[in-house]
Amino acid sequence: MVIRVKGKYLVLVVLLLVVFVGAAYAAAPKILYSRAQALESVGQQERSGVYYSLLAKYFPVSDEAVRALFFSAQQDVQGYSNQEEPGLIYIFPGGTGMSGWAGEGDLKGAIAKFKLVRERAPESPWATHALRELGQAYYALGDYNNAVKHLKLSIEESDMQASESTELLAKIYLEQGENQKALKLVERSLNEKPRFIPLEMMSLKGRALMAMERWEEARLVFEDLPRKADSYYGEILQDEGPDTVSMNIVNWQATAQGYLRKLDALQQDTGIAGTLSGRVVLDDRNLPGARVYLIDKAVNDDYFQGHTSNLEHVVTGPGGEYIFENLASGRYALGLGVRPGEVKGHTLQQWEGDILVAAGETVRRDLRFAPTVKLLSPLAGPTLSGRVEFSWIPVPGAASYDLFIGPITRDDQGGISATYTTLLKTGLTGSRVNLDLQEEMARNRFSGGIAHSDGGVNPLSILGLLYYGGEYTWGVYANDASGNRISDSSGYGFYMARKELPLFKVAGGKLSAADKLLLDRKYDEAIAAYRQQLDKTPGDIHALLTLARLHQYGSRMGTADPATAATYYERLLKVEDTPEARSALADVYFDAGMYDQAYAKYQSLTDSHMESWRTYYQMGKIEFHNGNLKQALALMELAVGMEHGLYARAYPVALALLSGDLERAVTFARVVDQGEGYLELLSEYGNRGYPANSDIMLAVGQGEYDRALQLPALEQHDLFIKGLLIYVTAGSYPGDQVTAVIKDMEPGLLSDLLSKMVH
Fold first, then answer.
1. What per-residue confidence (pLDDT) applies to 240?
2. Which of 46, 312, 381, 743 could form a disulfide with 503 if both were Cys (CB 3.0 to 4.6 A apart)?
């Protein structure tokens, strides 16, 4: 049978098809753009970039294509394209991290895209926004001439982004020593746009005036900064809540006080400034193009790793040399920003303590990268049991080694998605060590850091440092005779290919049904299964310990139940009385507020291998809680004097100040971690001889801490004492409560000292 279609119907069908295709083509850019934006809003930048690329390729003249080009270029600058290695590794004392900048290829690609935005849509607001982004990209490349050019154009053409462009341009001028230009720029912004990032602009203005030796003008700026911060955040951050407002205000107060301290030193040292210089060296060759950051401890003592925007920096020259001149006398530290490919297979040799620069002194500090430790065995993921040898090639100059180990996590596709490590053995004098895995599993059931995420506690951290069927990575640190780390096996391996990680597995076969449920993060079902195991075998050590740890740390954030954890540890002790179990039970007693029981358990550890600085530290906290300040200080003295006692940090210093024992407070501060950061302030506190409020101090001495906190604060020193008291009585995270006290204090020595001790 033949079906005949009249010509007019055929034409109609074709027309409808053309209309449909045309409508689909017209709608496609909006659909693709909406999908890209939705993916980017939930952090899936790589997938959103695919949609941006499709838009730019197949719909180049659409408005959405222009926006897609812009946002795709932004992703390139921020390092989300994954087309090459990340842009910079930041290496600072105490940590290492990645920058948000991409590699050179991605940055150049981003520049090309931003320029294309300006060519395709010169009248579009995106073309104007692209000027600021071009300035940022050129700055990331180290091309300051082009950065300055595009930032100037941005200031002229973009009302919306003029302040941000002004901020970056002023920073560039300061880095290049063009202080007058920087000052003129920020003063113009403060006059014309007083409500746009005014605190950042004031800080830049003060820095420019300092660089021009206009000391008194700079002092007025920094003295006014806390007042301006209080007014600014009080107006714009009401929706953020009082804690956020207080934290931001306190941060700016600390910044202002830091610069005021630096001003004092600069004025005292006029004409006899110090210098810090050296080279960045990789093996035996100099490393040009590295960014060297100067951390002035008077100003940036509370800097956090990777936050470099307010740090002075220079770029090393052809000979790897760097120099910082006109330094006030004081304490400094150095950080580095280097391209990953330049230092692959190497690690920066560490040093202890700050760099002291005196007036008129030139201090030299070379920053040296050494080859990473080469591991020998195990490497390629073998399944191990019984005794295992870990070996590596000896490092010249190494006096000892530390062995670290940690579990890995794989994603649904089998790729390694995460890993974390913990020290297993320290002070090894040879380049090999034989370990019995079963003995280590028993010994380290209580070891390993606890990690939480949105999905709950990491099961690997609950099961202990080693467990049957687990997959692990490992490595070593090499230390010189003074204990300084001179190399390690991973280098800056958080960016290296996962296939390069040394791996091994512990032979399985002993994972219970409860273990498997826990590994699948089915926490409630796992807890029920472990309890069933105990119903069948009341003395099941593994089930008792796992249930105790699940309740001690909580299967999810905020669900810790130390009282229930204590019941399982008590049952465990009846089956196997070990110092490790007693230590864990003491901790949960303490967290549950069962202080007498906790004290007895800590005391039982003093004649065991579990005796440590923390044993006496916790006993001291309990004595203080019970109102025995004198006994608490005596125990803190024991804790601080032991190995790793420096990690008591400011707590014993605060106790000594609350007892009125300034000499002991200074002694503690000289030893504890971060104490040198406020040691000078502490000495000045003693020199000023603040009068004590007899009523508050009497209540503290009698252990009536609640009454002391309720008494009226008549002077600034009363607020200082109350801040210390909150710090030592408020529990695990007292920072926010102390921050609220600091906000009520006048800027000055007392608020600065309290802030540095607590934060």
1. 55
2. 381
> Strand, coil or helix: what is 368?
strand
pLDDT of residue 257: 84
Which of the residue ranges 104-118, 323-337, 620-634, 736-750 has the most confident prediction, judged by mean pLDDT?
Answer: 620-634
CB half-sphere exposure, 684, CA atoms < 13 A: 10
Residue ranges of domains in the chain = 178-269, 274-370, 375-509, 649-759
pLDDT computed for residue 146 by the predictor:
95
For 389-399, the pLDDT digits (tens) are 999 999 999 99
Name the superfamily (CATH) of residues 375-509.
Answer: Immunoglobulins (2.60.40.10)
CATH class of 274-370: mainly beta
Written as one string, the DSSP assignment of 297-354 is: HHHHTT--TT--TTSEEEE--TTSEEEEEEEPSEEEEEEEEE-HHHHTTEEEPP--SP
Cβ(313)–Cβ(293) below 8 Å: yes
Indicate the average pLDDT of the chain.
84
Predicted confidence at residue 107, as pLDDT, reads 82
Is 375-509 in the same CATH topology as 274-370? yes
Long-range own/partner contacts, residues 168-172 (CB < 8 A, 24 or more apart): 168/132, 168/135, 168/136, 168/139, 169/135, 170/201, 170/204, 170/208, 171/204, 171/309, 172/139, 172/144, 172/147, 172/148
Contact (CB, 8 A) for 286 and 280: yes
CA 453 to chain centre: 16
Q: Convert 413-444 to b/e letters by CB count within 10 Å (16 or more is b).
A: eeebeebbbeebeeebeebebebebeebbebb
Residues 6+ apart with CB under 8 A from 687: none
195, with CB counted inside 10 A (0-12, 13-18, 19+), is: exposed
| Positive or negative torsion for Cα 275, 279, 280, 283 | negative
Residue 399's alpha-carbon distances to 352, 405, 486, 487, 654, in angstroms, are 16, 20, 10, 12, 37
Helix, strand, coil tally for the chain in percent (to 5):
55, 15, 30
- In the chain, DSSP finds a helix count (H) and a strand count (E) of 31, 24
Most trustworthy range by pLDDT among 132-146, 498-512, 543-557: 543-557
Reading the block at residue 74, the tokens are 């932004």
> What is the distance between the alpha carbons of residues 363 and 379, in angstroms, rounded to a whole number?
43
CA-atom Rg of the chain in angstroms: 30
Identify the helix (H) or strand (E) that includes residue 477: strand 471-479
pLDDT at 36: 60
Residues 698, 718 contacting (CB under 8 angstroms):
no
Q: Where are the alpha helices (DSSP H) in 556-594?
A: 562-575, 579-591
pLDDT classification of 281: cutoffs 50, 70, 90 = very high
For the stretch 400-427, pLDDT in tens is 999 999 888 777 677 777 677 888 899 9
Alpha-carbon distances, residue 427 vs 350, 474, 476 (angstroms): 17, 16, 11
Query: Class for domain 178-269, per CATH?
Result: mainly alpha
The rounded distance, in Å, linking the Cα atoms of 429 and 399 is 6
Over residues 611-653, the pLDDT tens digits come to: 899 999 999 999 999 999 999 999 999 999 998 899 999 999 9
**Percent of the chain's residues with pLDDT above 90:** 43
Q: Give CB contacts under 8 A, 24+ apart, made by 29-34.
A: 29/55, 29/59, 29/62, 29/63, 29/64, 29/65, 30/64, 32/59, 32/64, 32/68, 33/64, 33/67, 33/68
Measured CA to CA, the distance from residue 261 to residue 329 in angstroms comes to 11
**pLDDT 10s digits, 590-622:** 999 999 999 999 999 998 888 899 999 999 999
| Rounded Cα distance, 517 and 535, in Å | 18
